[in-house]
């Protein structure tokens, strides 16, 4: 007998399937039919868990918020030294993008920015919180002498996030034609030369 999956598990599978569709074909290709095909379930099963596409968009945004922004907050609140925290946040963010190419395609999509204004505002707030989290880690690094005393914490945080964003954009635009990890390692070494 096949064990019935919980609603939570099914919703997670649907969100992952939606991200997979976005990763392969972009936000415009995100239909209930495409999600059902990717998840290996019927459209009726999708509708059992979500009222429609807008609710799935919200669930995808919540997943991204938790996976990226909440993860950074947990790392920042830990007991490691600031530089180690920054490095962990940087590489875990890029590893998540490598695992889910749909994340940058979703976050940077005009279909979200212009077509889903409430969702775009929610993502904007989460990104703002993410910036503040990294700013705090950088400020701690300056205070502890790990980073240059004359750095501006917020601008340094934006520089670090810019490295992630531009790498993610290049990677998705090239249809994932290069390896993210070696690129990330070179960028991180260079960033350390600039800020330490």
Keywords:
196 residues, mainly alpha, Tetracycline Repressor, domain 2, 10 helices
Structure description:
The longest helix is centred in the middle third of the chain and has 27 residues, at 117-143. Helices cover 78% and strands 0% of the residues. It is mainly alpha-helical and 196 residues long. The chain is elongated and about 60 Å long. The termini are far apart. It has one domain (54-195): Tetracycline Repressor, domain 2. It has helices at 7-25, 32-39, 43-49, 53-76, 82-99, 102-107, 110-115, 117-143, 153-173, 180-195.
Counted up, domains total: 1
User: Helical amount among residues, as a percent range?
Assistant: over 70%
The strand count comes to 0
Going by CATH, the architecture would be Orthogonal Bundle
